[in-house]
Design goal:
heterotrimer, A mainly alpha (305), B mainly alpha (290), C alpha/beta (321), A: 305 residues, mainly alpha, MetI-like fold, 77% helix, 0% strand, globular, B: 290 residues, 13 helices, elongated, disordered C terminus
Chain lengths: 305, 290, 321
């Protein structure tokens, strides 16, 4: 188990390094940092001066090495737009996005677990078809459009929820639904397929032959094994949701990493954009690493692999 | 006796035409393609023409609506029906182009990894893992915004970023196909590697490829819409559905139809593509609905 | 000896795309306390369906009917799901063919063994664990305490089948139904497991219904034998009766297929029954074996007459020799 964890950790670190390099190069090639620092309407000489002064004329690899060194020391630079320390800025916004991401995954699971299990217990019945239809419709609805519809319904018509902001937990309700509904179908399909497979497994027949209660058969024996792939998917989807939260946070003006990223992109604030991309990548890598470990715990057969 | 049994082709035809989801998807797609191709013939007005005297005209089913503008006009007095019809062009063009670019990259990587295995496989798997770790929406937004939003830039950026699912699925499918006898037989006759890959392996993993292609096309269309909605994708006055929703956002409290029309168009198109993808999967492997 | 299990007129119908498959047709037998009944036949003859029907574990597309289905004085045909569930694993248990997949990979052996015990007997976790360790010892597993903490994938097929047997014994059942318990195992392990079952039966006194396609197994363990063909019992009697004087041509054919040490000469051809079991979809009239039978006559188109002779019963136009 320990050897397994160490190998996975080494892989995770290598991936983090590769991703940081790739995103650094990608952003640098897309736009001119010197022009962004010099500001709107700067003359060519000003930009050239900035380029020299900030060392932006050096080879990209050298700049990356310098940035990586600073990052590892916890120094993410100074925001060009907010004029503050990026590390502090990002640390300030991260909790909001993490709460949103986690609550969205929990919402998706809360919807998809019962539906997926019901569909598997009654395959090819109207319950199953209803779940499938919901899944297909859910996947087709653009999340920003759905978010606007939620605002119209809950904020404008019913006046139950605030339109935008971050103040209370009520501000998280609509963003959670708007972000979570989109991944629920993937969970539901996986749970349904997994449950159909495990309910037909020999060990479930053994459990029934032992007179265990239907609840124990479904939840202890079938669900546990069907959930193994769901854990991996949950980690991947949480990472995906954190990256995708930019749209939803912007619509609801929820003051998290996504909204920060949107602002930094609009104002060509390179250090901040870079930091958010790096942070979200690292969170994703951490999540998949954790999922591997949890999986090994759930499925004893994986521990030796 | 044999004559009484339906042939393989007839059974396949039966499965295709008997599949409600697949047929519905194809029907919607045919309409969408017709709109995209024949937009100039179908659209009642020039989608860019601004009639400032007739701004925010509601659709025909509401009071004050007229048949002159069946779906109303936007805040600049442009005909909404015409813009919605032209919007199909943008979405389908982006969906197809991104699918082709990312499909080419991902399939090549997946084929190579699955067929050669060993170090190639490890290298590709690592690249895929690294790519999956990048927040794709965020990176796409940043790059498009920095380079400057246009149709070509959006296509290039999404195409270069969204090949991961192609690579993952093609790798697994190729590994399975490689173990089959017909591949060994082709190798035994001395066929070149490229010939084995393109002539023997690729045709046998085509159903999986088509399913991923539909998924990716739908996802690219949604992503473009999201980018344009945030004002960081294609630029006005191009009639993109995402952009239309973005422009109509300020009026949605009084005129819900302004976001509902492009939103529904977008949802229907994505629904149709997903239905076709699911349908192909069912028809190709009738047991494995999942 | 009183009967622990009485089966009369058991029928199992499966609805399949091609129509209704009569998997089990008018099957009757009795099992006395502590007795071993072997149900023998080729694959597809309905013996597994019979076993699942006894346990109430039939697949969703199956229907069970019986004139009488009485276990330990309880009418199983009239029992509710909850009542049946209370019996399963406590008064009657089952052992399956595939030890590799019959245990849940996610839980330890101890967890699965104790789960059965605590479901039926309640009591403390410690008591369940003690019972599990005791039985693992009884089924010949050394270092039982350590094994309890292991997962199924850490055990060999033979060991897993021993665990399955221990699991079946957890609540001291009156009847064990074993469906081809040795088929998936290596030949040397097969003999050990059979002997184990026999020894445990002597010690704990439960009745055993052993489903097998292997007459060699039957000859070693059976008190009485029921031969099934195409969903119906064609011959039934004590092991001595059936082996010494098989009355049904199918039984005779099966016995000819067993190599007998000392009697079968090396290189000598073993018997074989030509053809395969007929499809059981739709109505079946007459003797189902007639298409493969060397003694078939026109009369075989009608339902075969039933013969009985000192507890030995068979269904064939051919009477006592």
């Amino acid at each position: 188990m320990l050897g397994f964890a160490v190998r996975r950790l080494a892989l995770a670190l290598a991936v983090a390094l590769a991703v940081s390099a790739a995103s650094f190069v990608l952003l640098r090639l897309s736009g001119d940092v010197a022009a962004a620092i010099a500001g709107e309407g700067a003359r060519a000489e000003d930009i050239a001066f900035v380029r020299k002064a900030y060392g932006l004329d050096r080879p990209l690899i050298v700049q990356y090495a310098e940035w990586l060194g600073n990052t590892l020391r916890g120094d993410l630079g100074t925001s060009l737009y907010f004029k503050t320390d990026v590390s502090a800025l990002v640390a300030d916004k991260l909790p909001v996005t993490l709460i949103l991401g986690l609550s969205s995954v929990l919402f998706a699971l809360a919807v998809s677990l019962p539906l997926g299990i019901l569909a598997a217990i009654f395959p090819n019945t109207w319950i199953d078809r209803l779940c499938l239809a919901l899944a297909v419709l859910g996947q087709a609805l653009p999340n920003f459009f759905f978010a606007l519809c939620l605002i119209l319904l809950f904020s404008i018509s019913l006046r139950w929820l605030p339109v935008s902001g971050t103040g209370t937990w009520l501000h998280f309700v609509m963003p959670t639904i708007a972000l979570g509904y989109y991944v629920a179908p993937a969970f539901m399909r996986l749970i349904r397929a997994g449950m159909i497979e495990t309910l037909a497994a020999d060990y479930v027949r053994t459990a029934r032959a032992s007179g265990l209660s239907p609840a124990s058969v479904v939840f202890k024996h079938a669900l546990r094994n069907a959930l193994i792939p769901v854990v991996a998917l949950a980690a991947v989807q949480l990472g995906f949701l954190l990256g995708g939260s930019i749209v939803i946070e912007t619509i609801f003006a929820l003051d998290g990493l996504g909204y920060l990223a949107y602002q930094s992109i609009t104002y060509k604030d390179f250090p901040t954009t870079q930091a958010v991309v790096l942070l979200l990548s690292v969170v994703y890598i951490f999540l998949t690493f954790t999922a591997d470990i949890v999986n090994a715990w759930l499925d004893p057969r994986l521990r030796v692999a | 006796m044999d004559a009484a049994l339906p042939t393989h082709a007839a059974m396949l035809r039966g499965r295709i035409f008997g599949h409600v989801g697949l047929m519905t998807g194809i029907a919607i797609l045919v309409v969408a393609f017709a709109c995209a191709i024949f937009a100039p013939l179908l659209a009642p007005h020039d989608p860019y023409f601004q009639d400032l005297a007739a701004r925010l005209v509601p659709p025909v089913w509401q009071p004050r609506g007229t048949w002159l503008h069946p779906l109303g006009t936007d805040n600049l007095g442009r005909d909404y029906l015409s813009r919605t019809i032209y919007g199909a062009r943008v979405s389908l063009l982006i969906g197809f182009s991104v699918m082709l670019v990312s499909g080419l990259i991902g399939t090549t990587m997946g084929l190579a990894a699955g067929y050669f295995g060993g170090r190639t496989d490890m290298a590709v798997s690592f690249i895929v893992t690294a790519r999956l770790a990048m927040p794709v929406v965020l990176v796409a937004l940043a790059v498009v915004a920095l380079v400057g939003g246009s149709l070509v830039v959006v296509i290039a950026v999404l195409g270069l970023l969204k090949w991961d699912r192609f690579a993952v699925v093609m790798r697994a499918a190729t590994q399975q196909a490689r173990a089959q006898d017909y591949v060994a037989a082709a190798k035994a006759t001395g066929a070149s590697t490229l010939r084995v890959l393109l002539g023997e392996v690729l045709p046998n993993i085509l159903p999986q490829l088509v399913v991923v292609a539909t998924l990716e096309m739908a996802s690219a269309i949604l992503l473009e819409a999201a980018l344009s909605f945030l004002g960081l994708g294609v630029q006005p006055p191009l009639p993109s559905w995402g952009l239309m929703i973005s422009e109509a956002k300020a009026y949605m409290f009084f005129s819900f139809w302004m976001i509902a029309i492009p939103g529904t168009a977008l949802g229907l198109l994505v629904l149709a593509i997903n239905l076709v993808g699911d349908g192909i999967r069912d028809v190709a492997a009738p047991e494995g609905r999942a | 000896m009183s009967a622990i299990l009485t089966v009369e007129g058991l029928e199992v119908d499966l609805s399949v795309p091609a129509g209704t498959l009569h998997a089990v047709r008018d099957v009757s037998f009795e099992v006395a306390r502590g007795e071993t009944l072997c149900i023998v036949g080729e694959s597809g003859c309905g013996k597994s369906m019979t076993a699942l029907a006894l346990m109430g574990l039939l697949p969703r597309n199956a229907r069970r009917r019986a004139r009488r289905l009485v276990f330990d004085g309880i009418d199983l045909a009239a029992a509710s799901r909850t009542q049946t569930n209370d019996l399963r694993g406590s008064r009657m248990s089952m052992i399956f063919q595939e030890p590799m997949t019959a245990l849940n990979p996610a839980y330890t052996i101890g967890n699965q063994l104790c789960g059965v015990y605590r479901r039926h007997k309640g009591g403390s976790a410690a008591a369940a664990r003690e019972r599990a360790a005791f039985l693992l010892g009884k089924v010949g597993i050394a270092a039982a305490g350590e094994r309890l903490g292991q997962y199924p994938h850490q055990l060999s097929g033979g060991l897993r089948q021993r665990v399955m047997i221990a699991m079946a014994l957890m609540c001291d059942p009156a009847l064990i139904v074993a469906d081809e318990p040795t088929t998936a195992l290596d030949v040397t392990i097969q003999a050990q497991i059979l002997k184990l079952l026999k020894d445990l039966q002597d010690e704990f006194g439960m009745a055993l219904v052993l489903i097998t396609h292997d007459l060699g197994v039957v000859a070693r363990v059976a008190d009485s034998v029921a031969v099934m063909y195409a969903g119906a019992i064609v011959e039934r009697g004590t092991a001595a009766q059936v082996f010494a004087a098989p009355r049904h041509p199918y039984t005779a054919g099966l016995i000819d297929c067993i190599p007998v040490p000392g009697r079968t000469k090396p290189g000598e051809r073993l018997g074989a029954i030509p053809g395969t079991v007929p499809a059981l979809v739709g109505n079946i009239t007459g003797c189902a074996f007639r298409s493969r039978c060397a003694h078939a006559q026109a009369r075989c188109e009608d339902a075969p007459p039933q013969h009985a002779e000192g507890g030995h019963e068979w269904a064939c136009i051919r009477g006592a020799a």
